[in-house]
Amino acid sequence: MKVRALLGLLAGLALLLAGCGGGSGASAASPTSGDAAPRTLTVLAAASLTETFNAMKTQFETDNPGVTVRISYGGSSDLASQIVNGAPADVFAAASDATMKTVTDKSLTAAPPVSFATNVLQIATQPGNPKGIATFADLAKPGLKVVVCAPPVPCGAAEQKVEKATGVTLTPVSQETDVKSVLGKVSSGNADAGLVYVTDVTAAKGQVQGVSFPEAQQAVTNYPIAVVKNAPQADLAQKWVAQVTGEFGQKTLQAAGFGAPQA
C-alpha cells in the first residue's frame, strides 16, 4: 500500500511539473512578444517648419511602428540654447546657419549639419491689405503698426539684413520670439503688418495676405538639420534626417513654398 501511494504521489508531481512547463511555453509564444518596444524620437525644430514637419511626423510614425515623434517648435535661437544647456534631443532643425553654429561650436552634433531648405521673407497684412502696403519701405510709414521677429531669431536677423540693404529703418510695435507669433498678431488684427516667411503666409490659408518684395532675396534663410550628439535615439534620428532630405521630405517642403537647399 505504501508503494502504491508513493507511485501515485510521483505521478501527480510529474503532471504538475508538465503543466508548469506548458505554461512557460505559452508565455514565450504570447502574441505581444514580437511587438517592438515603444520609442520616442525628440525633434527640436524652427517654428516655420510646423506644418511640414507635422506631415513628416505622420509619415514617419506610419513607416516605423511603435515610434512616436515628439516635436518641439520655437525660435531657433531658443532651441539652440536649450541644446547647449543640456535639454534632451535627438534632432535639431534650425532656420539659420548662425543658430546651428551655436550648437556646432560646442561640438554638440553627431555629424556636420546638412542644408535641407531655404526660405524668404514676405510681408503679411490683414486680408484685403487695407493699408495698401506694396513695398518694404511702406512698413516705415507713420502710424502703421508693424511687428517683426526679435533680432536673435532667424526671421529677425533676416529683417535686419533687409533694413541694411534698403536703408529703410522700421519702428516695430513689438518684436516676437518666432514667426508664428508675428503671424498671430497680424491675423488677430493687433498689427497692420508683419514680416514672416512666405511659407507662413501660405500655411495661414487666407487668414493673412502676403506681399512680396524684391529685397527679400538679399536675406535668404538657409535651414540646416543635424543629429544631436549622444542622441538617445540616434538610429531613429538618422532616419528622420534621411526622410527630411529625401524625396518625400523635399516634395513636402517645396509644396509648402520652401526653396531648394543651398549647395
Automatic annotation (TrEMBL):
Belongs to the bacterial solute-binding protein ModA family. Keywords: Metal-binding, Signal. InterPro entries: ModA, ModA/WtpA. PANTHER family: MOLYBDATE-BINDING PERIPLASMIC PROTEIN (PTHR30632), SULFATE-BINDING PROTEIN (PTHR30632:SF0). Pfam families: SBP_bac_11. This is Molybdate ABC transporter substrate-binding protein. Residues 1-28 form the signal peptide. The keyword Methyltransferase does not apply. SUPFAM superfamilies: Periplasmic binding protein-like II.
